């Protein structure tokens, strides 16, 4: 919905739209990198956006980039709502032939959660991220893929750091949930293979 009084007001500039969106969304954050919750959230977009300040409903369009600390989400469109108790929910959707992306550093380690889907639903109160449609979520150690989950629906619980996945029409996994899990101890894995050297010795 659009503010009833907006018709009589001059159209705000893109810079003003971005500043209003930033001010409205500051509490948005996740538990993965705890410091992110204390950072400003910024929003960039290319196209006309609608900000209903009365109902706390914001729709941002065109090459949208939402970032807060180490958290970055990219989409064609983002729709954000604020609950009466100050929490935010965000629904990000992809454009034709594109995907929505999510990336955030894990707290205390050099690892990132990196994912993509046709649609992402983010809830700052429950601290969950839902990847919907051709979903792929990876845990990266630096730039190397440690674990990977694919499915039609993947839910990531930031508080518990737990994934749940469901199958469906997913070209990458032929309709099935697929998980690829790296050994927890790379040194032990290397020693189990005759003639193999641990990464530190190469």
From TrEMBL:
<keyword id="KW-0574">Periplasm</keyword>
<feature type="domain" description="Organic solvent tolerance-like N-terminal">
    <location>
        <begin position="42"/>
        <end position="158"/>
    </location>
</feature>
<dbReference type="InterPro" id="IPR005653">
    <property type="entry name" value="OstA-like_N"/>
</dbReference>
<comment type="function">
    <text>Involved in the assembly of lipopolysaccharide (LPS). Required for the translocation of LPS from the inner membrane to the outer membrane.</text>
</comment>
<comment type="subunit">
    <text>Component of the lipopolysaccharide transport and assembly complex.</text>
</comment>
<dbReference type="GO" id="GO:0030288">
    <property type="term" value="C:outer membrane-bounded periplasmic space"/>
</dbReference>
<dbReference type="InterPro" id="IPR052037">
    <property type="entry name" value="LPS_export_LptA"/>
</dbReference>
<comment type="similarity">
    <text>Belongs to the LptA family.</text>
</comment>
<feature type="signal peptide">
    <location>
        <begin position="1"/>
        <end position="34"/>
    </location>
</feature>
<dbReference type="InterPro" id="IPR014340">
    <property type="entry name" value="LptA"/>
</dbReference>
<dbReference type="GO" id="GO:0009279">
    <property type="term" value="C:cell outer membrane"/>
</dbReference>
<keyword id="KW-0813">Transport</keyword>
<dbReference type="Pfam" id="PF03968">
    <property type="entry name" value="LptD_N"/>
</dbReference>
<dbReference type="GO" id="GO:0043165">
    <property type="term" value="P:Gram-negative-bacterium-type cell outer membrane assembly"/>
</dbReference>
<dbReference type="GO" id="GO:0015920">
    <property type="term" value="P:lipopolysaccharide transport"/>
</dbReference>
<dbReference type="GO" id="GO:0017089">
    <property type="term" value="F:glycolipid transfer activity"/>
</dbReference>
<protein>
    <recommendedName>
        <fullName>Lipopolysaccharide export system protein LptA</fullName>
    </recommendedName>
</protein>
<dbReference type="GO" id="GO:0001530">
    <property type="term" value="F:lipopolysaccharide binding"/>
</dbReference>
<keyword id="KW-0732">Signal</keyword>
């Amino acid at each position: 919905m659009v503010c009833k009084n907006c018709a009589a007001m001059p159209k705000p500039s893109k810079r003003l739209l971005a500043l209003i969106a930033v001010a409205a969304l500051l509490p948005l954050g996740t538990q993965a990198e705890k410091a992110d919750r204390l950072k400003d959230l910024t929003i960039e977009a290319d196209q006309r956006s609608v900000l209903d300040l009365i109902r706390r409903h914001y729709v941002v369009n065109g090459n949208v980039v939402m970032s807060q600390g180490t958290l970055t989400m990219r989409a064609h469109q983002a729709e954000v709502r604020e609950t009466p108790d100050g929490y935010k929910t965000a629904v990000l959707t992809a454009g034709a032939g594109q995907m929505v992306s999510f990336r955030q550093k894990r707290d205390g380690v050099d690892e990132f959660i990196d994912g993509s889907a046709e649609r992402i639903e983010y809830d700052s109160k429950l601290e969950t991220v839902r990847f919907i449609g051709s979903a792929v979520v990876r845990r990266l150690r630096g730039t190397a893929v440690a674990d990977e989950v694919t499915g039609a629906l993947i839910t990531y619980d930031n508080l518990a750091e737990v994934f749940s996945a469901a199958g469906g029409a997913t070209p990458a996994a032929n309709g099935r949930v697929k998980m690829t899990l790296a050994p927890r101890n790379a040194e032990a894995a290397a020693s189990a293979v005759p003639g193999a050297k641990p990464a530190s010795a190469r």
